[in-house]
Queue: 2 jobs
Job 1
Amino acid sequence: MALHLAKAGHRLHLWARRPESLRPFRECDAKEYASPAEVAAQVDVLFTMVADGPDVSAVLLGPNGVSSGARPGLVVVDMSTISPETAREMAMRLAVHKVDFLDAPVSGGERGAKEATLTIMVGGKAEAYEKARPLFECMGRTVTRIGASGAGQVAKACNQILVGAGIAAVSEAFQLAQKSGVDPVKVREALLGGSAYSKVLDLHGKRMLEGDFAPGFKAWMHQKDMRIVMEQAGKAGVALPTAALVSQLLNALVGSGLGEEDSIAIYKVLEKLSA
Amino acid sequence: MALHLAKAGHRLHLWARRPESLRPFRECDAKEYASPAEVAAQVDVLFTMVADGPDVSAVLLGPNGVSSGARPGLVVVDMSTISPETAREMAMRLAVHKVDFLDAPVSGGERGAKEATLTIMVGGKAEAYEKARPLFECMGRTVTRIGASGAGQVAKACNQILVGAGIAAVSEAFQLAQKSGVDPVKVREALLGGSAYSKVLDLHGKRMLEGDFAPGFKAWMHQKDMRIVMEQAGKAGVALPTAALVSQLLNALVGSGLGEEDSIAIYKVLEKLSA
């Protein structure tokens, strides 16, 4: 994602927890720093992309974090998938330093990141969004401001419900076909032309049938995202039975030692049930 | 569907349980008969389209049914959604009369039928399929022979799992957004551009958000189709937890007195849960 910014002519100011993460930038117009605070002191727009809420909090608000180096007017964009509540908290804590915060989680996986075809779902103030938009457009194909702080994360939660439920449903359909003596390859082809069409049936379904469970998007990350979904459901007071089922299937998948495979390996959990 | 055949220049020989069903054919090159047996005596390819397995059995094998009037070499095509097992039974019972049987359920709803854009999933012998194919192509856009007798019905069962799970997941995503104070219209727009894309999110999702629950495809018919899915899952020995959940949501929908609405009214069941 950062390489696309460099390719578009932007100077990069970099920090990473693991030095090897910076290896791809050796040929770029890029400078490395010793802390998030030092980066924050140099830039107008600062991106974070880490695994979970506590990581974002540490980078932004921890010792030598972004908030301790930021100049007023800085726009901080977190592209990690974290809870809407943590996103809103980050926005409030940074506002004290006159720093704007956008939650801007992405969908599209490793491939979307490499090909700059990500879907980027943004929450935060409209003015801050307008500043960051040209940069988003270097990294993604569909860039949408959903609403106020946290709204990007809510949209991402919705995305993960749809993709997860899609994977479970496609897995079940293929297994019903197989166990009924019918070729799931033929079923998939027929269904792609009708109202059952989905990107999950098309792209993920193809890989399931080829037995290709390499990530893509790792199961443990989808499990983490469904934890966020179910937490948010609890806070918002909304029952999500399908999402709850997907969440349990991901628990079983990670619990089976397959957390490093793609989350389409939900197929294997459902297959094992009736094997 | 039959009107598309007439439009393509085929002479229609018609019978219907309710005379009013034949009203649209008054302007066509069409002749009405007093029983399925009389129709069967006139035609090379005979189509049935009724609600459920017992209806198909009555029309094909009952008194004055197709089998009592059929000439050897007749191809009977049933486009109803019935169980794969009933389809295979029909094929065997008609084979005694040297009549070929194709199960050819469709997906695409009323709109697909009117616009001749149906997905048609066919099970049965390849030679019989080749005879009927030009006629299928008058009615549908995606016509696929899935495999032997019953395979079309298995594919349709898979289709109904995907559409039903899609409706449930989209409903949950929209309600999570709404209850989290985020506009589901914006969420839908953003998600259409990414890996969460599905026809259900696109077409059905739009109607959900507009509050348009007119059929389309009636809830009680989807409930019946999910009964077939779960019966087939039992016979095939495969656990389908997502499909089972969809089936329960449809039970609740029909039980709430909303069986005549579109099956996207699953949205209302899920909404009511947290209202």
Job 2
Amino acid sequence: MNNKEQIFLRSALTLEGAVMSSANVMPWFWSRQDAHRFRLEKIPFSELSKWGFDADTGNLCHESGRFFSIEGIRVKTNWGSVPEWDQPIINQPEIGFLGFITKKIDGVLHFLVQAKMEPGNINMIQLAPTLQATRSNFTRVHQGKSPPYLEYFIDRSNSKVLFDSLQSEQGARFLRKRNRNIIIEVEHDIPVYEDYCWMTLGQVLQTMRHDNIVNMDARTVISCISYGGSDGIQVTQGGLGASLLRSLDPLNRSEYSNEAIISWFTEQKFKYDLGIERIPLRIVHGWERTDMCVRHESGKFFSVIACAVEADNREVSSWTQPLVKAHQQGLIAFVAKEFKGILHFLVQAKVEPGNFDVAEMAPTVQCLTGSYEEAAPEDRPPFIDYVLNAKLEQVCFDTLQSEEGGRFYREENRNLFILAGEDFPEEVPENYIWMTAAQLKEFIKYNNFVNVQARCLLSSLSFI
Amino acid sequence: MNNKEQIFLRSALTLEGAVMSSANVMPWFWSRQDAHRFRLEKIPFSELSKWGFDADTGNLCHESGRFFSIEGIRVKTNWGSVPEWDQPIINQPEIGFLGFITKKIDGVLHFLVQAKMEPGNINMIQLAPTLQATRSNFTRVHQGKSPPYLEYFIDRSNSKVLFDSLQSEQGARFLRKRNRNIIIEVEHDIPVYEDYCWMTLGQVLQTMRHDNIVNMDARTVISCISYGGSDGIQVTQGGLGASLLRSLDPLNRSEYSNEAIISWFTEQKFKYDLGIERIPLRIVHGWERTDMCVRHESGKFFSVIACAVEADNREVSSWTQPLVKAHQQGLIAFVAKEFKGILHFLVQAKVEPGNFDVAEMAPTVQCLTGSYEEAAPEDRPPFIDYVLNAKLEQVCFDTLQSEEGGRFYREENRNLFILAGEDFPEEVPENYIWMTAAQLKEFIKYNNFVNVQARCLLSSLSFI
């Protein structure tokens, strides 16, 4: 274990002796809700300001051509049971920053956490990284203020980069979107503005056990942290924490080598075609546009809506924007099992239309509730029944976590972590493979491998 | 060093005691030229059979919609000095196989090398991997024979996969093309057909010192081989071989950690935009179509031509197809330098329109001769003068190597490997970084990082 990993692990194991006592974390969070005034109202598309449907393509765009747009894609694939469909998709070609500033305080690394309002958030405010900024944001296309702390990420000459990589977002909703996930460490004192506070990693992880408190952006950044093994740090707790730490140690034996996993993944990408044609939103087949939304004829999947927002603590105090509203809750579950004493995660190679590279490594189960509730028995996603019928003692983690509130309207997914029992099948379908946590972390490092659902679920597992 | 790496290294160091004596390699190669009859003729587009310009888009396509097509792209980027241009590009969405079968013979790993004809090849025949097959090839869209040895790559239950990953091809010519680079090892005897023979890796590397003998496909597959360090194998030779082996050992100290390199690369991808819009070939601005070619108004860059081919040893004995003809020779050079006794390569983050992911890691210099011969002094590519003025004692490798003869008409690039002298600048531009050979190999493993020019040049460096 290198020094950096040890520092992260120590922070992850620290609840007491933090700048803010752990008992005060949730009260501070709720105080931020009370301190601000927010208002969100669904509006007809005609009341959008600076946003509109392009006369030619029907795409929903900002007048500057920046931020994001809602366009159409035509998908052809030999993966899954539907060979061809059209759908709206969010196109946001700019890479934004998702970044934490960290600092050692009394020997323990603290993260500068932001209580951030996003229009689509459940709870309106959620805990976020220090900085969340698209390029349109920080080049100030909206002519508002520059986001706080941006300067620390632009000029990194007085800080140390702990990691810095591009990571994907939801392939079912975004067209090849990625963000720059970065953690920097400063040594000098920096101002702590209103709505920001220092927390240890352990405190952030603890908070993820509550529903919808830590936002997607914070979870994906945290997922990029490698912990190495546990040598040099005493973990007194038994159970999942110790088991997870053994799985995070790259020196421990895995069922498959990284090269064998790359070969397996190569076979998946070789086998499955994904043809994506960008088409005007106007001609997206099976979807209709009303005054209030763009929706699928069946009422399923998601719709695009418009809303007006007022907030007293954002760079701009009121604005209108489109949001994507899911019609079904999602289910995201990892099944894990020990092989020769080392916990392995059952990873799925999953094709989604907006993926950067055909398939990404996904959790054991990742689906919409509709896809199994209404499906014929033979069409139910693999392992869904195992997950839904798990005994309480097998369930290590079960919370609702939110998707990005800047784009999605109150979207939450059930996140589950299930320990497989003796009855779990030995054989898995050919697009599944067992991997240790250390291996998942290694693939996260080289980006474009592990999808956002798998990363976020992995990041929410606490050691204590 | 693991066992697999040791086996590859032993093969790379073996010239004597191989199945075919090294003295017979080149005679065998020339005997294959003599054994076959090939004919290539440039024809007008109107004489193409089964290929034609689409009435609507003007794209040049096969009637089956398979193989590849010549389409247009509109490029917008803030990288380099030209912010916007149109160009034709080869679109070949199918992933093909580039694969070697290997087998231990008398304790040394041998590669089953093919003397393969491709219409655009200089020398018509070049040494190639055992199998080179697009999906259209092996699903037999052309209704010819199935390629020899395909079955070993489809059903791998009787062989061991030594590696298997997707690797990119030229980003200036192909739209996000990748191939599956794979080496398998068999234990049982297999037939050796006409035009195939067993060679050690050392013999293949030796052959790369000649111009245009080993094709691009063989070189890219070989570039994926990791050698580890040299422990357990005695390398008696001093000089570049020993120095290269130290650089290939991942345990030796590098100037930058892999994570620091990922961070540097993230910054490059963050900074540079690459907007690619697929457009019909018909409207590609600045290019014109005549009876005989599609070419740039300036006569520069490349043109698309048509040719008729006759061959007696291919799956189909005569056919017509388009080829891309370069108008300028390219220059590909790595500058390397020792840091604390370990050889480092000066790697460039280079944006090319067909790149899968904006930028790839490229050699120190990668350009067309025209781009420096005609350029104003301030527009000459970095390090071009250092490379062109290198003293003979600094030049470790200087040959002409071919691009893929199935798509390119007699295209060759000068490949150079230069040892930096004391006079080499300490400071390099911000899109350059020093990496060891072991680090380049690690990034090749996780694909989409190292471009085909860097990989092929790296693969041609022999230890002996």
